[in-house]
Amino acid sequence: MDASEVEFLAEKEMVTIIPNFSLDRIYLIGGDLGPFNPGLPVDVPVWLALNLKQRQKCRIVPPAWMDVEKLEEIRELERKEDTFTPVPSPYYMELTKLLLNYASDNIPKADEIRTLVKDIWDTRIAKLRLSADSFISQLEAHAKLDNLTLMEINTIRAFLLDSLNCMYKLRSNLQPGSSKGQFMDY
Amino acid sequence: MDTQSYQPVQAGVGMEENFLSLDDILLSHERLPIRTECRFPRLGFLEKSSDTQDILEVGEVTGDNVMGTKMELPLWLSKGLYERKRRVLTIELPKVYREGWRTVFNADPNVVDLHKMGPYYYGLGSQMLHFDNPENPEIAQTLLQTFIGRFRRNMDSSQNAYNEDTSALVERLDCLERVLFTSGQSGLNGFQSWEKGQASQLTASSLVLNYRKRKIADVQP
Q1: Burial (0-12, 13-18, 19+ Cβ within 10 Å), B196
Q2: Which residues of B touch A157 (CB under 8 A)?
Q3: Residue B71 phi, psi dihedral angles, 5° rounding
Q4: Of the residues A33, B19, B102, B120, which has the maximum number of CB atoms within 10 A of its CB?
Q5: What strands lie across the sheet with A14-19, from one edge to the other?
Q6: Which chain A residues contact residue B149 at CB under 8 A?
Q7: Residue A11 carries which DSSP code?
Q8: How many CA atoms lie within 13 A of B143 on its CB side?
Q9: Which of residues 167-196 of B touch A (CB under 8 A)?
Q10: A96, A66 in Cβ contact below 8 A?
Q11: Residues of B with Cβ-Cβ distance to A136 under 8 angstroms
């Protein structure tokens, strides 16, 4: 899976916009949106919000968690805990990137938010490596990773799965007899 | 990812090889030290062609091998000739899998140059388990421990090597670890190019770029 495919899934998240045009309720396959009235907030998917924003037809309201104090709190908690802490949004990385790239004029302290989210991401990735390493070195066969997001899993998936596969095969060498069937005496 | 349309058969790491895997075919050409236990009439050329020093009666008139000849045979042939009950060959462990080297691997797997030792260290080691050596459990254990011991370093170097010259990093890796290294790097590269916004730019497929234009004379009969 590519990072852009994860981003595609993230674009289904809802975000609040303030449109500057009026439009009746629209009926889309994934659900109905609207009605749109100038100056009144309305929830739309991110892909539509960005499209309207680029056509200068709306103003995006940043999500509640995209705030310097809240992110600082999350960062401190993330550094303190050994396990992964819950993140504000399952697509926090993607949403930060999309909103900050296309609507940074609507988001207060955009640069600080970018730095904070990057810090959170780096902390979590370092933690992920550490836990992957102890997972491998203790020869575990399963693990529970509740609060990881799709993007985080996706960056390490190919490598971790291939390694676990190799480890499993090297480990099954230890139990002779399981694969001896194909090599018999004639 | 321009390699998506090309999906080579992966090497089967454990005791079974994948028939169509190119890596496994190359692995099965690794030479093993063996001793013959019976006569092989008219097969003297096998031994003469081997590059190693053979201190035996070479070049008899009949070309037969003498009992107990020491020679080297590729893995695929030794595997085919080996039988548990009827003694045709005895297979000796290559040096890397013997007691002495196993101690080195157990001490610190990170210092060993597996490419020089292998380059199919894990694959060949797993294949050695077919030959009912009394040291089999220790060999399997060492292979596993070596892999685990080198995992962290492999992971860190592959996931931190963005747009770097990686030849120094992969120089000492076994072929299996190199495959893992590339997959670790592709995860990192995919994420980085997305973050920089390169993923949304459309580029021509490498297949199309490398495709030469056809001349009309070639197409028309």
Answers
A1: exposed
A2: 187
A3: -155, 180
A4: B120
A5: A42-45, A14-19, A58-61
A6: 137
A7: T
A8: 33
A9: 176, 179-180, 183-184, 186-188, 190-191, 193-195
A10: yes
A11: 148, 151-152
Residue written as token pair 């980085």? B192
pLDDT tens-digit profile, chain B (221 residues): 445 677 888 888 877 888 898 889 999 998 888 887 777 777 766 665 444 444 343 334 344 555 567 788 889 988 888 887 767 788 888 888 888 888 888 888 888 888 888 788 888 888 888 888 888 888 888 888 889 988 888 888 887 766 667 777 788 888 888 888 888 888 888 888 888 877 667 777 666 676 666 667 766 66
> pTM for the complete prediction?
0.80
Task: Give the integer Cα–Cα distance in Å for A49 and A103.
Answer: 10
The span from the CA of A25 to the CA of A45, in Å, is 14
Query: Mutate which of A153, A170, A174, A183 to disrupt the B interface (most B C-beta within 10 Å)?
Result: A170
Contact (Cβ atoms closer than 8 angstroms) between residue B33 and residue B24: no
Residue type present at position A122:
D
| Long-range contacts, A122-130 (Cβ 8 Å, 24+) | A123/A75, A123/A78, A123/A79, A124/A78, A124/A84, A124/A148, A124/A152, A125/A152, A125/A155, A127/A78, A127/A82, A127/A84, A128/A84, A128/A152, A128/A156, A129/A156, A129/B155, A129/B156, A129/B159
What residues pair up with A61 in beta bridges, in sequence order? A16
Whether residue B1 and residue A174 make contact (CB cut-off 8 A), yes or no, is: no
Which residues of chain B neighbour A97 with C-beta distances below 8 Å? 195
